[in-house]
Specification:
Layout: H1 3-24, H2 27-30, E1 47-48, E2 55-60, E3 81-86, E4 102-107, E5 125-133, E6 136-141, E7 146-152, E8 156-162, E9 168-174, E10 186-193, E11 199-205, E12 212-220, E13 226-231, E14 238-239, E15 253-256, E16 259-267, E17 272-279, H3 283-292, H4 297-312, E18 315-318, H5 321-333, E19 339-340, E20 348-349, E21 355-356, E22 364-365, E23 367-368, H6 369-372, H7 376-383, H8 386-401, E24 411-413, E25 416-417, H9 426-435, H10 443-454, H11 462-468, H12 479-499, H13 503-512, E26 520-521, E27 526-527, H14 556-559, H15 567-574, H16 577-588, E28 606-607, E29 610-611, H17 623-626, H18 630-644, H19 660-670, E30 672-673, E31 681-684, E32 691-695, E33 701-707, E34 715-721, E35 724-725, E36 730-732, H20 733-737, E37 740-747
Parallel strand pairs: 33-37
Antiparallel strand pairs: 1-2, 2-3, 3-5, 4-9, 5-6, 6-7, 7-8, 8-17, 9-16, 10-11, 10-15, 11-12, 12-17, 13-16, 14-15, 18-32, 19-22, 20-21, 23-24, 24-25, 26-27, 28-29, 30-31, 31-36, 32-33, 34-35, 34-37
Length: 771
């Protein structure tokens, strides 16, 4: 070994610890946006700011299969070809849509205006050397010879393209492309060049939320040398005007249902930057949004990186590298939605399709509420400023006020309702925030909006629910699930009403909160769908999963545990603690070898009949603690975390659902989980990180420490809160917000005496039987 080689090696040895120390405390560097972009995760790797309106990310070309569930985010890591870069995406949704305003660079003399496929050349390109971090994405388009980079601000996305030297640079803007190819998908679109060279346009889309309008404004770091606007419709419905000095074939504006634009820049000596802003209001709003975030690519990238460092830095984590990467990436995925929807001037387009003026807060949309009420929104109340959480709640209430039906959002994006999933789960989000004392919310006014939704008889069998005490299956699909989800939502209404002193509303909805019992069959020990005549529907198979049947994306095994507000009442029907634990074990240990769930897209991450890849199961592992056996919760959590999360593209067992799968991991890694949002309690599980420090909205710091944590030491031996023994299986929201230290002492064997007594158990509406 020569002297130079020894010197280089010595230098690397001295430098490595310093590098590791720097990286270990940088939460942005710990995030891997490729986690969940393969398998069942449905995440995207592109650039987005925290809760940003723009999600600038690649869409991969997969032919006809692009319409399917697996491409809900428009991208899969294993796909070799990129179709282009569009500006709107869902992170981990179980449904496809978006992909607005696809942009693709092309180099050379020939500019195809179709993407092409395996047999026909087009503007699509093979990919190489992908890189992603929060707020940044880059890839080499090998066919075009272009290095493409993306970053994003709150309402803007910025592209940077390094074209081959000496070759003409072009952009293709495809207004026809959409992630899910609905029939008649583009109702209308337009594109035009403004006198200052700004390109603006819009499209109105028939899709999941329909009709949905979105507008854009686009500027460039180099002047256009030419352009071509083309419609691929047979009949051109509108042509724009010819500008002075332009050829007879050049249009400065075009409108129709199938538009594509070619923009020419000639041979460039430096990378081309393309700055794009979106608006749900109009083109002028998009221009104003463009001007509201000044700066070039590097300035926007640095600003967004700082925003991510601040948002992720709300939780400082010490853990082995794989777990740290998993948890920080989960935290990152939890901070993408709900996304900003109002323009910089405060205007926004509502569910009534009308434009509304600013209301003193930033309007947000993209609410996947059936998923996110469980852990995502409770997490945000702890790690985001009060003003941001107030924005979320006020956005829900503003949508209700401007809804044609006068009810809160169900599953909303782009300001429009999809009516997807069940329940009225904006209600627990609002109640949880108000009961935690989040400032900036008119909670009395919010209660009125909650009651209006819960009393809207035409929605999802509510008329029968209010008169019969359950939703009848012969009149409404998924009736068993709807009954118990309505009952939980009603309990949160009762909780907030009591908190506000409205005892009449509290009593009325407190009674409705117990309606879950009306669909529970004590003889079989399962939640079952009942007919209007009161009989249970037969035949009954607790493992059957069929969409539109008795249950929503699940079966009796999962839904028989969904009364998070009244586990004590459930345990009495099951016959007590021992029989409850046996039933939980039967669920996790069930032999699925003879069951085929291939027809059910959302059913993934199975551990017996526990299905971690979908939300109805997410609280179930914590229920052992309600039955006085918290060490069994600790065992199951270890089983789930080890099998359902890993720091790879296929590292999420199920679709992330706008952050819910990720929020489950963040809470679980910290050692506690909100089984019943609205109770102001978190059930203690076991930590998966050695140390975590949360900076709370009030400025207090709450620290979790796991002494002796290892694969062998998987059980909780002792818990202290601020140095004092904590002998109960829950911690309150007020205790966390007060700051302090939650310390776990881990050990290799179960502690069968800690937090087992009835008084040590988490909240239940009707309490527990003495054992």
């Amino acid at each position: 070994m020569n002297a130079l080689r020894i010197a280089l090696l010595a230098g690397s040895l001295f430098a490595a610890p310093l590098l590791a120390q720097t990286t270990d405390h940088d939460p942005v560097a710990a995030v891997d946006p490729f986690i969940g972009t393969s398998g069942e995760g449905h995440t995207f790797p592109g650039a987005v700011a925290p809760f940003g309106m723009v999600q600038l990310s690649p869409d991969t070309h997969v032919g006809p299969a692009r319409q399917t569930y697996n491409w809900a985010a428009g991208y899969r890591h294993e796909d070799p070809v990129i179709l282009g870069f569009s500006h709107t995406h869902f992170s981990g949704a179980g449904h496809s849509d978006l992909g607005d305003f696809l942009v693709m660079p092309v180099s050379g003399d020939s500019v195809p205006l179709e993407a092409g496929d395996e047999k026909t050349p087009g503007f699509r390109s093979r990919k190489a050397d992908e890189v992603a971090s929060p707020g940044y994405y880059a890839v080499t388009l090998t066919d075009a010879g272009v290095r493409a980079e993306m970053t994003a601000g709150t309402r803007i996305g910025v592209h940077r393209y390094a074209f081959p030297a000496g070759k003409a640079a072009h952009l293709v803007i495809d207004l026809r492309s959409i992630i899910y190819d609905y029939p008649g998908k583009i109702l209308w679109s337009s594109v035009r060049i403004r006198p200052d060279g700004t390109i603006t346009g819009m499209r109105e889309v028939r899709g999941w939320a329909t009709p949905r309008r979105i507008f854009f404004a686009m500027r460039f770091s180099a002047p256009l040398t030419g352009h071509r606007f083309v419609t691929t419709e047979k009949d051109i419905l509108y042509k724009g005007f010819k500008g002075p000095g332009r050829g007879p074939e050049t249009l400065d504006a075009l409108a129709g249902r199938a538009l594509v634009a070619q923009l020419d820049f000639g041979a460039l000596t430096q990378p081309l930057e393309v700055k794009v802003a979106l608006s749900g209001v109009d083109e002028d709003g998009a221009i104003a949004n463009l001007e509201s975030e000044p700066g070039d690519f590097d300035i926007i990238r640095a600003k967004t990186r700082t925003a991510w460092a601040q948002a992720l830095g709300a939780v400082k984590i010490d853990a082995p590298a794989p777990m740290r990467r998993n948890v920080y990436t989960a935290l990152y995925h939890s901070l993408m939605a709900p996304s900003v929807w109002s323009d910089a001037d405060g205007r926004w387009r509502g569910p009534d399709d009308q434009v509304h003026a600013g209301a003193g807060f930033t309007m947000h949309s993209t609410f996947s509420l059936w998923d996110t009420f469980r852990a995502e929104h409770p997490l945000l109340t702890l790690i985001q400023p009060e003003a941001k959480n107030a924005d979320f709640v006020n956005s829900l209430i503003a949508s209700q006020k401007n809804s044609p039906f006068g009810i809160l959002p169900v599953w909303q994006f782009g300001g429009k309702e999809t009516w997807t999933m069940i329940g009225y789960h904006a209600v627990p989000v609002i109640a949880d925030a108000c009961l935690k004392g989040i400032r900036g919310i008119d909670c009395a006014g919010a209660l009125k909006a909650m009651v209006a939704s819960a009393d809207y008889a035409p929605y999802g069998g509510l008329s029968d629910y209010m008169t019969l005490g359950y939703v009848p299956i012969d009149r409404e699909p998924e009736a068993a699930s709807k009954t118990v989800e309505y009952a939980y939502d009603d309990w949160t209404i009762a909780r907030l009403a009591r908190h506000l002193g409205d005892m009449a509303t509290a009593e009325r909805f407190g009674k409705r909160a117990l309606y879950w019992r009306n669909s529970f069959d004590a003889k079989t020990g399962f939640l079952r769908a009942r007919k209007a005549d009161g009989s249970f529907r037969t035949p009954f198979d607790p493992t059957a999963i069929n969409y539109g049947s008795d249950y929503t994306e699940g079966n009796a095994w999962q839904y028989s545990w969904f009364m998070p507000h009244d586990q004590g009442g459930l345990f009495r029907l099951l016959g007590g603690d021992a029989k409850t634990v046996a039933r939980l074990d039967a669920m996790f240990d069930y032999d699925n070898s003879k069951i085929d769930y291939s027809h059910a897209e959302d059913i993934s991450g199975l551990i017996g009949q526990y299905i971690h890849g979908n939300e109805p199961s997410h609280h179930v592992a914590y229920l052992y603690s309600y039955a006085g056996q918290p060490w069994r919760t600790q065992e199951r959590l270890k089983q789930i975390v080890d099998s359902q999360y890993k720091p790879t593209p296929d590292g999420l067992a199920g679709n992330d659902d706008l952050g819910q799968m990720s929020a489950w991991l963040v809470f679980t890694a910290l050692g506690f989980y909100p089984v019943a949002p609205g109770s102001n309690e978190y059930v203690i599980g076991r930590p998966f990180v050695e140390r975590a420090e949360m900076t709370l909205p009030n400025g207090q710091r709450f620290t979790v420490i796991a002494e002796g944590l290892s694969d062998a030491n998987r059980y909780v031996g002792r818990v202290t809160l601020d140095g004092k023994a904590l002998d109960r299986g829950y911690i309150t929201d007020a205790e966390i917000r007060a700051g302090g230290e939650l310390r776990f002492t881990m050990q290799a064997t179960p502690n069968r005496t800690w937090a087992t007594g009835v008084k040590a158990r988490p909240y239940s509406m009707t309490g527990y039987e003495k054992q």
